[in-house]
Specification:
Largest sheet: 4 strands, antiparallel
Strand order of the largest sheet: 1-2-4-3
Distance between the termini: 18 Å
Low-confidence stretches: 2-45
Structural class: alpha+beta
Order of helices and strands: HHHHEEHEEEEEE
Helix content: 25-40%
Strand content: 25-35%
Number of helices: 5
């Protein structure tokens, strides 16, 4: 049953676009926040947010990508995994950024926004190779306008829940789970290490393992 739920959740993000527009690949494409929704602002992590709150998008994006790739450790040398983690973040949370726009069912994000989100993964977009073929129908780059075109996904049925936070010599160690909100079933458990960074989220994920 858990595997069926995981497959459904991952498919809802990775395989169900809101539009069917075909765009040029990576080498060659403001939604206003809804009432009551707080937008992410560059370099401004609200004081009331805990590290677990501010890094929720990164944790969510990484865990889903790892489950889809069937790996247990987040390894940035796996560039397909890194790209998919970034796509998940942009797809699920990019619409909350005040710099975003919607055009024909696609989310448009300036390159600086993508870089801000990538920083939470402790990478820069420039470090990554061209987009993998598996993502080119959902994430593309318009070099002339310096804008990413993102097909939005949906993962309303699962959320990251952090259960424990410990301060260690390596940084903050978070233990938590990806939880199916319908019945509170834990779909995957994780441990992550966060280190302070001068970026929009205030931290970067320096390690994450499942199990």
């Amino acid at each position: 049953m858990k595997q069926v739920i995981l497959t459904t959740l991952i498919t809802s993000i990775l395989l169900l676009p809101l539009g069917s527009t075909a765009l040029a690949d990576h080498e060659e494409a403001p939604v206003q926040p809804s009432a009551g929704t707080q937008a992410f602002l560059p370099g401004d992590v609200p004081a009331e947010l805990t590290p677990a709150d501010s890094m929720g998008p990164a944790l969510h994006g990484i865990v889903l990508a790892m489950l889809n790739h069937d790996v247990t450790s987040f390894d940035l040398t796996n560039t397909d995994l890194a790209w998919e983690s970034l796509y998940n973040m942009l797809s699920l949370y990019g619409q909350l950024d005040s710099r975003s726009e919607i055009s024909e069912d696609l989310l448009l994000l300036p390159s600086e926004t993508a870089q801000d989100y990538a920083a939470a993964l402790d990478i820069t977009v420039e470090q990554l190779p061209p987009l993998p073929a598996s993502l080119k129908d959902r994430l593309t780059y318009d070099r002339s306008q310096e804008v990413y075109h993102v097909v939005c996904g949906s993962d309303a049925l699962a959320q990251i829940q952090v259960q424990e936070v410990q301060s260690t010599a390596q940084g903050l160690r978070l233990t938590g789970a990806l939880v199916y909100v319908v019945d509170n079933e834990e779909l995957a458990q994780f441990q992550a290490t966060l280190q302070l960074r001068d970026n929009m989220f205030g931290y970067a994920v320096t390690s994450l393992t499942l199990g």
